[in-house]
Amino acid sequence: MATIATGAGVASDLDEHRRELTGYCYRMLGSAFDAEDAVQETMVRAWRGMDRFEGRSALRSWLYRIATNVCLDMLGSRSRRARPMDLSSTSWQPVPASLAARQPEDTWLEPMLDARVLPVAGDPADVAVGRESIRLAFVAALQHLPPRQRAVLILRDVLRWKADEVAGLLETSTASVNSVLQRARATLAARAPDDDGSADLADAEQSDLLADYVTAFEGYDIDRFVALLLEDATQNMPPFEMWLQGRDDIAAWMRGPGAECEGSRLLPLRVNGAPAFAHYRANGPGGRHQPWALQVLTLSGGRVAGITSFLDTRLFPLFGLPAHPDDAEVVAADR
Predict the structure, then answer these.
(1) What's the angle, vertex CA 25, arms to CA 21 and CA 30, rounded to 5?
(2) 262: Cβ contacts below 8 Å, ≥ 6 apart
(3) Ordered DSSP codes for 163-202
(4) Who has greater pLDDT, 227 or 128?
């Protein structure tokens, strides 16, 4: 195997793998911020250890070994991340108290921008698998697996590594990898949805639905908005524990505490393999629009089946989103 170049060449060789490593670490950790930290730590360790890399294995495999160890170390002292509906079977709370219960940011599953983890081109089947494997419901289900099971399942079923390759990475036997994978698949089958309806709309139908969604939300036409929802649609807003289910409860929320979102602006994105919006609320000086949330939608049956609004404005600079909707062109939506 050819010797890897030094200096700028090393940095280029390492950086070539950053996007896929970020996707791997995100699936492992359920956090965009933790994934970025894990990849940065992986790159630092690789840089420092490059003189010990003798080319006996591919650079990509070596980086995945480092990234896996970094993620396992990070997961050793942390609780699993979840969605509000994963923590409580009760959806509706009285409107005045609905925002009283709040959990720390590290409680919740975080979103991930598609462009940071998915390949820009490639085999359509691989792209589709990549998109499905970062959907919120799937990543939430992964968090129920013990860390090593999580790593094995991602490497085998998402990234399509061979059993002996995973065994080499984890320094275990192929039989052990197959046994761990069997247990992980059984757990995931009980947690992950068979079909979240993400692919049941043609491109034109989806575009029309999303255009209607923007029109209704920005115009704050609640009747028109809830008409776009499935009857049992859900809405949740981390870091708050509250989650809603059903058109009536969502409408009551939006006419109550949610009314402060009137006059908002939405910019389209692709987040977690799904249509999404950067939500700017008109709560700045003089009614200036400011970052407020990232809305990630689940679509099914020609309607909106779920809305997750991540009320964490730190995500805007992390994902390179403008501080004001008029400050930059709409971020490429990968649609």
Answers:
(1) 145
(2) 220, 282
(3) HHHHHHHHTS-HHHHHHHHHHHHHHHHHHS-S--STTSS-
(4) 227
